[in-house]
Amino acid sequence: MLTSLIQRFQTVAKRLFGEEQIPAQHPKPANAAYRIYTTEFDEVIDGATLFVRADTAPQDKTARINPYVNVDYDALMRMSATLRTKCRALHAHLLQTLSREARDDTIVSLLFDHSGSLRGLPALALAEAAEALADALTSAGITTDVLGFTTVRWRGGRSREKWANDGCPPLPGRLNDVLYVVHVDGSIGPSPGPHIFPGMRQDIVLKENIDGEALQWAFDRLTANHRTKKILIVVSDGAPVDDSTLNDNWPTILSDHAEQIASQIALSKEVTLGAIGIGYAVGPYFPSSATAQNLSAIATVVPAFVEKMVLDAHRRHHPAER
User: Fold this and answer.
1) Minimal CA–CA distance to 181: which of 194, 193, 198?
2) Nearest to 285 by CA among 313, 315, 252, 311
3) CA distance linking residue 232 with residue 143, whole number of Å
4) CA 119 to CA 237: how far, in whole Å?
5) What are phi and psi of 44, to 5 degrees?
6) Is the pLDDT of residue 71 over 90?
């Protein structure tokens, strides 16, 4: 009896503290439905707070290489210069194409994946893109939400601790603490720039990604806004991954849910939905998408896709403009 209890304690401890990576062995249930074990430890924070808390956020105990040591900053600056030029052109074209009333009636939500795989140059490039897009859109009078999503910790955080204390019930559902970041709050209208998002450059912020719930969160923010032209654009470099959740559920729980939510948003017709993949094809999830295969492509693909999405949203409401 004592030996059995000790073995169980050791198993729970290994799962809880990530000392072993347990492969997902649970088959997908016939009546599989996404669920959340607890929302008690989820957080929504301001982007400025993210920068402050990055220095005190829980870190991995193991030493790791600084992801910015070998960044080609010359290439980054060249990309940034091209990006700013393209975003100035985006701004000018929106002013030329859309009336003041149309721009006032538009909101764009840019939802950025803040996953650990972006550490280094990609994170810096996407921060540049987020800032340039926010400047271009808001200076054109278009309300803009700039959002981010990740998790509070690696390996499940307090959600997993609670699950372990509850005796590790099977198929618990989402088993990590989500962290949502509001870099620019579109609920208050266009925010004047220049916009600076230092938190997006903090590698310690970048952890795991639970896309379906983040999509729903961004969508709910949009539907609460009184403007009629609503655009949601996701920027991501890969499929949803959260080891804590995947280890103790079926292997496709996160990707299934992301696909389900994307489909529901697209079918609702309330929002024009699209996504930009960074070195990753996001097409299977979204009705409209683009892929930036490398650093230089971010500077051209991202502004062009944002412009397309804004104009598509207006054509949907005004078919005669097609």
Assistant:
1) 198
2) 252
3) 12
4) 11
5) -125, 120
6) no
Instruction: Check residue 32 and give its pLDDT.
Output: 85
The total number of residues shown for the chain amounts to 322
Strand partners, 314: none
Pairing of strands 178-184, 43-46: parallel
Query: For helices 121-139 and 73-97, what crossing angle results, to 10°?
Result: 20
Report whether 125 contacts 295 (CB < 8 A): yes
* Greater pLDDT, 110 or 11: 110
State the Cα–Cα distance between residues 130 and 143, nearest whole angstrom: 14
CA geometry: angle at 192 spanning 191 and 195, to 5°?
90
Q: Which one, of 192, 146, 162, lies nearest residue 47 by Cα?
A: 146
> pLDDT at residue 93 above 60?
yes
The tens digit of pLDDT for each residue in 151-196 reads: 999 989 999 999 999 999 999 999 999 999 999 999 988 888 899 9
Tokens of 128: 């540049």
Q: How many whole angstroms separate alpha carbon 21 and alpha carbon 46?
A: 32
Pairing of strands 178-184, 143-151: antiparallel
Helices (H), the chain: 2-17, 47-53, 73-97, 100-104, 121-139, 157-165, 211-223, 243-247, 253-268, 295-317
Task: Retrieve residue 165's tokens.
Answer: 């204390």
- Classify the phi-psi angles of 109: left when phi > 0, otherwise alpha if psi is within -120 to 50, otherwise beta: beta
Q: Output the DSSP codes for 123-167.
A: HHHHHHHHHHHHHHHHHTT-EEEEEEEEESSSTTHHHHHHHHHTT
CB 163 within 8 Å of CB 172 = yes
Query: Can you tell me the distance from the alpha carbon of 110 to that of 306, in angstroms, rounded to the nearest whole number?
Result: 9
What is the pTM for the complete model shown? 0.88
Q: What is the pLDDT of residues 253-288, one digit of tens each?
A: 999 999 999 999 999 989 999 999 999 898 778 999
Mean per-residue pLDDT over the chain, rounded: 87
